[in-house]
Write a sequence for this structure.
C-alpha cells in the first residue's frame, strides 16, 4: 500500500506532464488533501515533540550468569537481575521444556530450549513475590517441575522489563536492528521524533507476509527474530511488534510487546504500547506524552489485510512482554 508521500509524488509528476491536469480543480483539491495527509504523517520533527533526545550508544542488556543461578536437576534459574526486570534460565533435557513465571493469580508460560541455551524472560507483572519454574514434558500436555526459585522483586523502575531484550524481543549490541535504529534517530531532536522515525521506517519498509501468516496460522511456539524481519523486509504482526520494540528499547524508549485480540471476530494479533516523554500524531497513530499509547505497526502498514490484522478499532490485551 503506497504512502501519502508516494501517492502525492506520483500525482505531482502527472500534473507536470499534463497541463490540463494542473488546472483541473478536483485534481488540485485531491493533491492538497494528500499533501495534508503527508504533513500528518510527520516526515520531519514538526509534528513530534518531547524531551531532548540523543541516540543511545549502548543497549540495556540482559545476561545469564550461571555462577549466580539456582541449580537443580540440570536446570539453572538466574535471578540476580530482578531489579532490572528479568530472570533467565537454562536447562538440558531429552524432553520438551517450559518456564512458568507466576505472580499472584497471574501466570506466563514460555518454551525453553532443551539444549542449554540461556533464555531471558521479563518480570512483567510488577513488584512482589514471583515463583519461577522449569518444567519438563512427561506426556502430551503434562509437565513436571524440575527446577524452581522463589523470588522477591523490586523493580528499579516500572519500565525496566520493557527496556531490555527478552525471549520475544531478542536483540543484542551487535544486532543489525540496533545499528539501524541508531542510524534512523541520528538527527532526532526529541523523544517524540525519535519514536516517530522508527515507527515510520518500519511501516514504510516492512511488507506484510500473507503467505507466512497463512502457513503459521495458530502454530504455537513461534518466536520472532527482529534482525530477520529487517533483512527480509517482510513479516507478520508478531514480527512488526518485535522489531519495533527492539529498535525503540535499544534507544531507551520503553515499549511493550502486546498480544491479544482485535476486531472484527477476535483475530489474534500483536501490537506495541509505547511510553514516550513526547508526543506525535499521524493518520495511523496518536501518541500522547508520558502515558502508554497503542501503536499498531502492522495495521498501519497493511490495513487492507483485514482478515489477518483486523480493523484497528477494538483491542483486547492478553499478554504483555
Amino acid at each position: 500500500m503506497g504512502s501519502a508521500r508516494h501517492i502525492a509524488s506520483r500525482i505531482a509528476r502527472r500534473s507536470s506532464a499534463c497541463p490540463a491536469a494542473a488546472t483541473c480543480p478536483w485534481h488540485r483539491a485531491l493533491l492538497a488533501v494528500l499533501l495534508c495527509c503527508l504533513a500528518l504523517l510527520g516526515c520531519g520533527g514538526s509534528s513530534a515533540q518531547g524531551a531532548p533526545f540523543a541516540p543511545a550508544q549502548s543497549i540495556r542488556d540482559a545476561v545469564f550468569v550461571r555462577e549466580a543461578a539456582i541449580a537443580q536437576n540440570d536446570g539453572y534459574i538466574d535471578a540476580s537481575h530482578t531489579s532490572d526486570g528479568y530472570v533467565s534460565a537454562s536447562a538440558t533435557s531429552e524432553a520438551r521444556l517450559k518456564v512458568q513465571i507466576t505472580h499472584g493469580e497471574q501466570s506466563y508460560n514460555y518454551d525453553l530450549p532443551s539444549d542449554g541455551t540461556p533464555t531471558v524472560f521479563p518480570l512483567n507483572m510488577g513488584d512482589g513475590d514471583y515463583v519461577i519454574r522449569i518444567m519438563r514434558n512427561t506426556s502430551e500436555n503434562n509437565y513436571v517441575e524440575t527446577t524452581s526459585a522463589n523470588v522477591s522483586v523490586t523493580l528499579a523502575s516500572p519500565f525496566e522489563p520493557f527496556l531490555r531484550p527478552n525471549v520475544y524481543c531478542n536483540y543484542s549490541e551487535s544486532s543489525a536492528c540496533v545499528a539501524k535504529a541508531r542510524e534512523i534517530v541520528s538527527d532526532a531532536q526529541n523523544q517524540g521524533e525519535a519514536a516517530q522515525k522508527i515507527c515510520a521506517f518500519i511501516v514504510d519498509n516492512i511488507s506484510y507476509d500473507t503467505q507466512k501468516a497463512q502457513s503459521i496460522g495458530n502454530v504455537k511456539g513461534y518466536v520472532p527474530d527482529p534482525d530477520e524481519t529487517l533483512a527480509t523486509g517482510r513479516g507478520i504482526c508478531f514480527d512488526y511488534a518485535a522489531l519495533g520494540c527492539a529498535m525503540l528499547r535499544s534507544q531507551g524508549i520503553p515499549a511493550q510487546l502486546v498480544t491479544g485480540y482485535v476486531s472484527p471476530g477476535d483475530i489474534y494479533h500483536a501490537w506495541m504500547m509505547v511510553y514516550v516523554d513526547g508526543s506525535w500524531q499521524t493518520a495511523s497513530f496518536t501518541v500522547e506524552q508520558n502515558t502508554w499509547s497503542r501503536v499498531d505497526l502492522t495495521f498501519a502498514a497493511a490495513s487492507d489485510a483485514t482478515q489477518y490484522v483486523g480493523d484497528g478499532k477494538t483491542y483486547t490485551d492478553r499478554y504483555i512482554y
